[in-house]
Structures are given as C-alpha cells and as structure tokens.
Amino acid sequence: MPTPTVVPFPAALRTREGAPFPLAGATVAGDADAAAELSRLVRARTGIEPARAASGSIRLRVAADGPDDPAAPESYVLTVEEASVTVTGADAAGLFYGVQTLAQLLRQQEGAWVLPPVEIEDAPRFAYRGVMLDVARHFFGVQAVMSFIDRAASLKCNHLHLHLTDDQGWRLQLRSRPELTARAAGTAVGGDDGGFYTQEDYARILAHAASRHVTIVPEIDIPGHTHAVGLAYPDIAADPVLTDEVRADAEAAGAAVPVAGQPYTGIAVGFSSLRIGDARTDAFLADVFGELAALTPGPYLHLGGDEALGTDRADYAAVIARTVGIIAAAGKTAIAWHEAAAVEPLPAGLVAQYWGFVTPSPSTTAARASSVILSPSDAAYLDMKPDADFPLGLMWADGPTSVQRAYEWEPAGLLPGVEPGDILGVEAPLWTETVRTPADIDALVFPRLAAVAEIGWSPAPSASAARTWESFRARVGGLGPLWSALGIAFTASPEIPWQSE
Questions:
Q1: Which domains does the chain have, with CATH numbers?
Q2: What residue intervals traverse the membrane (predicted)?
C-alpha cells in the first residue's frame, strides 16, 4: 500500500497485512476529551458520528505505565487492525496527537470510509514546536485566534506565540496600566480598526489553547516597536528616529512618517524606543511584565528586543537585563529575538529566538543564549509571499518562500556553536502587515506551516527515509480534502500534487 497520508511523519510507521478497519458501525470508548475530538474530526471529514460505547471498537486511552505503553511526553502508539483501533498516549497531549494522526489516515475505499492497517509509534523531536500570530499590525478577535490554535494543534504544534504589541497598537488589557488599551489600541496598519483582548478574552484564549495542549507565549516588544506605548504614556517614550530608511518606507507605502503622540499605521520599523534609565520606564516594565506573568500560566514570556535601532547600545543592554530580571523574578523564562543574545553581560537563562537567514551572518550571537528557538526568516516566516505574484505577503527575506524552501532546512547545525541539545525547538511566525482576515491567515499559513511542523516533530532526514521533499509533498497533497472539510482556506500550491476525494 502507498505511504499513509500523515503529516508530520511519525517516528516509526509500519504498514500491516490484512483488511482495513471499516468506519461504518464503529464505536468509540475511552478518554472523553479524546473521543470528543475524534468525533469532531470524523464528522467533519465523513459525516459519520461514531457512537460512544463502554468497550468500543476504537479505544482511546492514556497510558497506565505498562510495559507496552509509550514513555516520552507527548508520545503515542497507534494500531489499526481489521476489527479494532487502539490509540494510547503517554499523556493527554500524546493521545490528542494520536487522534490527529487517526483523522489524517481516514480514506475512502470502494465507497466506504476506512482506516488502513498500520502500526505507529510516535514522539516529537523537539519540545517546542511553535507558530506565531502577530495581532498588533492587524488585530484578530478571540474566535479567530481559537481557530488558529485548532489549525496549529492539528499539525502537532504546541506553542502559540502571540505578538501583542507593536508600533501600530497595544492589544492586551492590563489593569495596572489602563491607558494602554484606552489610548493605544484603536488603530492598525493602513488605518484599519484595532482592538484589544480584555483579561476575560485572554483567559478564554488560554483555556482553549490548554484544551488543545498548546502553551501561549505572550510577547510585549521592548524597547523598540513601542510607538503605541507613547500614545498612552508619552513620558516614557523617546521621539521617533527618522532615518532615511524610515522615510523611504513611508514614501513607498504612501504613508506618513511616525509622529510622537499620533497613531502610526505604516509598516516601517526601528524608529521607536522607550526612555531607558528613567525611573518611570522601570516602573512601567515592572508593572507590565509582572501583570503579564500573573495572567499567563505558561513558563515563557517574550520580551521582543528586535530592531531597536533607535536605542543606544548601552541602554539596550541595560533594559534587556532589567526586563529579563523582572521576568525571572516572576517565575518565568524570558525569550527574546536573537539580538538580545549580544548584550554584555548576557542575562542568565535567556532563550534566543533566531530570525536571521538559513545561512547565518558571521556576527550572529544567538549561540550565547541558554537555548535557541529557530525561526529562519527565509524559510519559516509564513508572511513571506509563496511566489512573487501572490496577493498577500512581503518579500524582504531573500524573495518568495516556496513550500519546498520552507521544508528543506535542518535545525541541527544551522547556527555555529549551537549543539542539538541547545535547540529548544522551531517556530513559524506570521507577521500581519498584509494580513487582514482569517482567510488571509489560512492562505499564507497553509500548506507551509505543515513543512515547519514536520521539521519540529519528525525525526531528522538522516534518521527517516520518509523525510524527503518528494515524500512530504505527496503526503501534504493527501491532506487537501481533510483541510477543506475543516474549513481551512489553504493555498493550493502548484508545488503539491493535491488529491481530490
């Protein structure tokens, strides 16, 4: 039989002899949450609603630490036979991921829905498998974020990095600093409407993410990307630094240059900064990151730190050190874009998120951090155009990023000095300068997120014969009907041999 349509590809997959398992008349037993998720996926894909039963033909369970149970966190074992299906997760997350794989295996044979006979033993390569959504350039409401979480989790991504603040707007209510959402949340790129999450909204997002085994990583970007802060608290914001590049970006976009105290709706970067060394700025940082830590159950807070071109180098090092200290004191681990790994002395425990190219600059200092998340912009940035004529996206990261380019990079060895054990994981960011609707999100994210998801979950190409571009493109092509059934408005890239029902 052909290689089953599974993305990311499992650690071990063996096809079995025998007849497939027929879905008609199947009953589901076991873990209630997993059964509900399987029913949702099966109903969307086939229109069939499997019945619940005390001892069903599809058995879903979390391991009881027996000798045949999976051991690694998030791992699972899946077996399909003619008369039964069993999915056993090492934990609730592993069972959830096994259910996602089971839904991908569904296919039609002679007019009936079946599951092919297989044995799968699966576990993730990296602990951190992330995707980022920028809600600052354009704002997306709670339902859109929850749908994005569902889509990411279906590909076994387990972290959602929310870029909550930027020059164009502040998107999270903080009771310690109410002016941020009162004065700095109303606009977006191009003059579009802004918005923000109340603390109740944020709690809903967190709860939904937890139900999908996704950890929210909130980002408050400092000391640059802070023009919006100046609308609310002008005493801690420096005047915009209007370089030739900023003026050129404004002219090319037909937009105004940034002006202190006025909302900014362009897409230039690097012009804003906080006033470093001012006691009022220190108090602001303590309030913001302290309250953010109290609101966020996950272990990570992201402090940004990128493109702080308007900040003196010594001031930059000082504010990074201070903010990492505030985050650590709140019991969290700080993540920052890789520029922060250049500061002296390097703050202990800092995780660097690398956003340079697949071929790094010799001056890259990300290896100095305690661990690294890899997001090479010319391969993993989902906001890059998939081809030059695509109506959405940008092209600054070495031109368009095809699906093949998104797939054919390897984390190990990408950064000199970063050993495999230093890699926390990978992340695919989506910046939203050109993204205005949930359909726009889908169009840029799918199918390229599947490429990065496979890099984060599956064994390295050297350890798996299925980790090839030809295998991947065929397997992703088989997911088209499932994605359509789930309402994912993916881009039917000509690189992929898409299958019909």
A1: 12-122 (3.30.379.10), 128-463 (3.20.20.80)
A2: none
